UniProtKB/TrEMBL annotation:
Organism: Cellulomonas wangleii
Keywords associated with the record: Acyltransferase, Transferase
Ranges for domain N-acetyltransferase: 11-159
SUPFAM superfamilies: Acyl-CoA N-acyltransferases (Nat)
Top-rank taxon: Bacteria
Name of this protein: GNAT family N-acetyltransferase
Pfam families (alphabetical): Acetyltransf_1
Gene3D superfamilies: 3.40.630.30
Protein backbone atom coordinates (compact mmCIF):
# COMPACT_ATOMS: atom_id res chain seq x y z
CA UNK A 1 0.00 0.00 0.00
CA UNK A 2 1.36 3.37 -0.97
CA UNK A 3 1.42 5.95 1.77
CA UNK A 4 0.10 9.30 0.56
CA UNK A 5 0.87 11.33 3.68
CA UNK A 6 1.25 11.25 7.43
CA UNK A 7 1.01 13.47 10.43
CA UNK A 8 4.08 13.09 12.68
CA UNK A 9 3.11 10.42 15.27
CA UNK A 10 -0.43 10.54 13.89
CA UNK A 11 -2.55 8.68 11.39
CA UNK A 12 -1.16 7.45 8.09
CA UNK A 13 -3.08 8.25 4.91
CA UNK A 14 -3.14 5.87 1.97
CA UNK A 15 -5.33 5.02 -0.98
CA UNK A 16 -8.33 2.88 -0.19
CA UNK A 17 -7.84 -0.85 -0.82
CA UNK A 18 -10.27 -3.71 -1.49
CA UNK A 19 -9.77 -5.02 2.05
CA UNK A 20 -11.11 -1.74 3.46
CA UNK A 21 -14.64 -2.42 2.20
CA UNK A 22 -16.38 -3.08 5.54
CA UNK A 23 -14.64 -0.29 7.47
CA UNK A 24 -15.00 2.21 4.60
CA UNK A 25 -18.71 1.35 4.31
CA UNK A 26 -19.20 1.95 8.05
CA UNK A 27 -17.51 5.37 7.76
CA UNK A 28 -19.35 6.37 4.58
CA UNK A 29 -22.69 5.30 6.06
CA UNK A 30 -21.94 7.52 9.11
CA UNK A 31 -20.97 10.40 6.79
CA UNK A 32 -24.28 10.09 4.96
CA UNK A 33 -26.18 9.96 8.27
CA UNK A 34 -24.39 13.12 9.46
CA UNK A 35 -25.75 14.95 6.40
CA UNK A 36 -29.18 13.40 6.98
CA UNK A 37 -29.10 11.49 3.70
CA UNK A 38 -31.34 8.42 3.55
CA UNK A 39 -29.73 5.05 4.13
CA UNK A 40 -29.12 3.84 0.58
CA UNK A 41 -27.18 0.61 0.08
CA UNK A 42 -27.11 1.14 -3.69
CA UNK A 43 -25.51 4.61 -3.41
CA UNK A 44 -22.96 3.31 -0.92
CA UNK A 45 -22.07 0.30 -3.07
CA UNK A 46 -21.85 2.43 -6.22
CA UNK A 47 -19.57 4.97 -4.54
CA UNK A 48 -17.39 2.18 -3.12
CA UNK A 49 -16.98 0.78 -6.65
CA UNK A 50 -15.97 4.18 -7.95
CA UNK A 51 -13.37 4.91 -5.28
CA UNK A 52 -11.81 1.45 -5.02
CA UNK A 53 -11.78 1.09 -8.82
CA UNK A 54 -10.70 4.71 -9.39
CA UNK A 55 -13.59 5.19 -11.83
CA UNK A 56 -14.96 8.58 -12.95
CA UNK A 57 -11.69 10.23 -11.93
CA UNK A 58 -12.33 9.21 -8.31
CA UNK A 59 -9.65 8.49 -5.74
CA UNK A 60 -10.39 7.22 -2.24
CA UNK A 61 -8.07 8.00 0.64
CA UNK A 62 -8.27 6.62 4.16
CA UNK A 63 -6.66 7.69 7.42
CA UNK A 64 -5.33 4.69 9.33
CA UNK A 65 -4.47 4.53 13.02
CA UNK A 66 -1.42 2.81 14.49
CA UNK A 67 -3.57 -0.29 15.09
CA UNK A 68 -4.57 -0.45 11.40
CA UNK A 69 -8.16 0.73 12.00
CA UNK A 70 -9.66 3.16 9.52
CA UNK A 71 -10.23 6.50 11.23
CA UNK A 72 -11.55 8.53 8.30
CA UNK A 73 -12.05 8.77 4.58
CA UNK A 74 -11.76 11.28 1.78
CA UNK A 75 -13.37 10.76 -1.63
CA UNK A 76 -11.83 12.94 -4.33
CA UNK A 77 -12.29 13.39 -8.06
CA UNK A 78 -10.52 15.20 -10.84
CA UNK A 79 -12.20 18.12 -12.57
CA UNK A 80 -11.35 20.39 -15.47
CA UNK A 81 -11.01 24.15 -14.90
CA UNK A 82 -11.80 25.67 -18.32
CA UNK A 83 -11.37 29.27 -17.13
CA UNK A 84 -7.71 28.58 -16.32
CA UNK A 85 -6.95 25.69 -18.66
CA UNK A 86 -5.93 23.59 -15.66
CA UNK A 87 -7.25 20.73 -13.57
CA UNK A 88 -8.24 20.50 -9.93
CA UNK A 89 -9.06 17.92 -7.33
CA UNK A 90 -12.55 18.06 -5.84
CA UNK A 91 -13.04 16.76 -2.30
CA UNK A 92 -16.54 15.29 -2.43
CA UNK A 93 -16.58 13.68 0.99
CA UNK A 94 -14.44 13.97 4.13
CA UNK A 95 -15.40 12.14 7.29
CA UNK A 96 -13.59 11.16 10.47
CA UNK A 97 -15.09 8.69 12.92
CA UNK A 98 -16.38 10.73 15.88
CA UNK A 99 -14.23 8.62 18.24
CA UNK A 100 -11.14 9.57 16.20
CA UNK A 101 -11.76 13.31 16.03
CA UNK A 102 -8.84 15.42 17.27
CA UNK A 103 -6.48 12.55 16.37
CA UNK A 104 -5.08 14.47 13.41
CA UNK A 105 -6.95 12.29 10.89
CA UNK A 106 -8.85 15.20 9.30
CA UNK A 107 -5.71 17.28 8.89
CA UNK A 108 -3.82 14.27 7.57
CA UNK A 109 -6.52 13.63 4.95
CA UNK A 110 -6.51 17.29 3.84
CA UNK A 111 -2.71 17.36 3.62
CA UNK A 112 -2.74 14.12 1.64
CA UNK A 113 -5.33 15.59 -0.76
CA UNK A 114 -3.06 18.61 -1.24
CA UNK A 115 -0.04 16.36 -1.80
CA UNK A 116 -1.96 14.25 -4.32
CA UNK A 117 -3.08 17.39 -6.18
CA UNK A 118 0.51 18.65 -6.30
CA UNK A 119 1.76 15.29 -7.61
CA UNK A 120 -0.87 15.39 -10.36
CA UNK A 121 -0.14 19.00 -11.30
CA UNK A 122 -3.57 20.20 -10.19
CA UNK A 123 -3.94 23.87 -9.32
CA UNK A 124 -6.52 23.61 -6.52
CA UNK A 125 -8.24 21.28 -4.08
CA UNK A 126 -11.84 22.45 -3.75
CA UNK A 127 -14.81 21.41 -1.62
CA UNK A 128 -18.04 22.64 -0.12
CA UNK A 129 -19.51 22.17 3.33
CA UNK A 130 -22.64 23.19 5.15
CA UNK A 131 -22.44 26.73 6.49
CA UNK A 132 -23.43 25.55 9.97
CA UNK A 133 -20.82 22.77 10.07
CA UNK A 134 -18.70 24.83 12.45
CA UNK A 135 -16.53 21.99 13.72
CA UNK A 136 -15.43 21.01 10.21
CA UNK A 137 -15.08 24.65 9.16
CA UNK A 138 -12.63 25.25 12.02
CA UNK A 139 -10.47 22.47 10.55
CA UNK A 140 -10.92 23.70 6.98
CA UNK A 141 -9.99 27.27 7.92
CA UNK A 142 -6.59 26.00 9.07
CA UNK A 143 -5.91 24.41 5.68
CA UNK A 144 -7.73 26.47 3.06
CA UNK A 145 -9.42 29.75 2.26
CA UNK A 146 -13.20 30.03 2.19
CA UNK A 147 -14.54 31.47 -1.06
CA UNK A 148 -17.46 33.85 -1.66
CA UNK A 149 -19.10 31.53 -4.20
CA UNK A 150 -22.70 30.37 -3.78
CA UNK A 151 -23.56 26.83 -4.85
CA UNK A 152 -26.72 25.92 -6.80
CA UNK A 153 -28.26 22.54 -7.65
CA UNK A 154 -30.62 22.19 -10.62
CA UNK A 155 -32.65 19.08 -11.30
CA UNK A 156 -32.02 17.63 -14.79
CA UNK A 157 -34.77 18.57 -17.24
CA UNK A 158 -36.04 21.39 -15.10
CA UNK A 159 -37.86 24.16 -16.93
CA UNK A 160 -37.03 27.69 -15.80
CA UNK A 161 -39.76 29.73 -14.16
CA UNK A 162 -40.91 32.66 -16.25
Amino acid sequence: MTTVGTVPSGPTVRRVAAGDHAAWTRLFRAYRAFYELPDDDHAIATTWGWVVGEQHGMTGLVAVGADGALLGLANLRAFARPSTGTTGLYLDDLFVDPDARRSGAGSALLRAAGDLAAQRGDTVVRWITAQDNTRARALYDRHATATPWVTYDMAPGRVART
